[in-house]
Amino acid sequence: MISRPHITPYEEMNLNKKEQVKLMFNNIAHRYDFMNRLLTFRIDTIWRKRAVKLVKPFSPKDILDVATGTGDFAVQLAKLKPTKVIGIDIADVMLELGRKKIEKKGLSGTVQFIEADSENLPFADNSFDVVSSAFGVRNFETLEKGLGEMHRVLRSGGHVLILEASNPENMPFKGLYKTYMCRICPAIGGLFSENKAYSYLNRSVSVFPTGKAFTDILTHVGFTEAAHYPQSMGVASIYLAKK
Ligand SMILES: C[S@@+](CC[C@H](N)C(=O)[O-])C[C@H]1O[C@@H](n2cnc3c(N)ncnc32)[C@H](O)[C@@H]1O
Whose CA is nearest to atom 10 of ligand 1? Predict the structure, then answer.
């Protein structure tokens, strides 16, 4: 397993990354959707739609959305008319808000949320046609363990679909992007939510593997045909791979 910098939300706190991540997302849950729309100028909604389009040709029946949070990716995936979408997350407050969203959208018959850990999924091997995660994998305590679990529960021939924030390499306005991530996001985060959460966002994205570095990890975990689809000049990335 490759060792990489261990980035946690609350550096001074004596809790492991998983406990800190759960605490942070529960703390910011009520502002989470609003902050996503604000900080990405609503482009996050386009990225989720584009990602879901990639698995539409496979007409998946059983879908698992890992680190589902308040369920925005699960809602998009439900538009593929699968038999079921199960969303799992460790942050119970995020899930509670997700459940209200699902009910409001009349999706309770298709989408179901369960409190569970991506690194120890409570499902049998080969259970799903698509296993997805949007902005989730960067937060795992052990990336390879979480991806390994996603591989295990996927059926042979099924697809893993990952959307994640990434580091733009050849962006003409890289300096501006850095200022936005390092200074502006945490400042806006501090105004409306929790400053530490948005400084963690910047710190965690800056060290997270992007592009080939990430598709290599997918291959190492056992996936095949790993492909990378950079979004918005590389500030986000979609990855699709097969079991
Ligand atoms: C940035 S949010 C993404 C939420 C949602 N997927 C979206 O598209 O907005 C990251 C989520 O990952 C969850 N998470 C982090 N580590 C996890 C783990 N080990 N197991 C399950 N969920 C986890 C957090 O609780 C949080 O809700």
Answer: 136
17 Cβ closer than 6 Å to some ligand 1 atom = no
pLDDT of residue 11: 86
- For residue 32, give the ligand 1 atom closest to its CA: 9
- Domain residue ranges of the chain, discontinuous segments joined by +: 17-168+208-242
Q: What is the pTM of this model?
A: 0.96
Distance CA 137, CA 121 (A): 14
Ligand 1 centroid–CA 68 distance in Å is 6
Alpha-carbon span 140 to 185, nearest angstrom? 22
Q: What is the pLDDT of residues 23-70, one digit of tens each?
A: 999 999 999 999 999 989 999 999 999 999 999 999 999 999 999 999
Q: Which distant-in-sequence residues (6+ apart) come within 8 Å of 62 by Cβ?
A: 82, 83, 84, 127, 128, 129, 130
- From the CB of residue 108, how many other CB atoms can be counted at a distance below 10 Å? 11
Using a 6 Å cutoff on CB, does residue 137 contact ligand 1? no
Question: Ligand 1, atom 15: nearest CA belongs to which residue?
Answer: 139
Tell me which CATH homologous superfamily contains domain 17-168+208-242. Vaccinia Virus protein VP39 (3.40.50.150)
Q: Which residues partner with 201 through β-bridges?
A: none
| Token pair in block for residue 20 | 């800190």
Phi, psi of 52, deg, nearest 5? -65, -35
Which pLDDT tens digit goes with each residue over 122-157? 999 999 999 999 999 999 999 999 999 999 999 999
Is pLDDT larger for residue 126 or for residue 177? 126
209 Cβ inside 6 Å of ligand 1: no
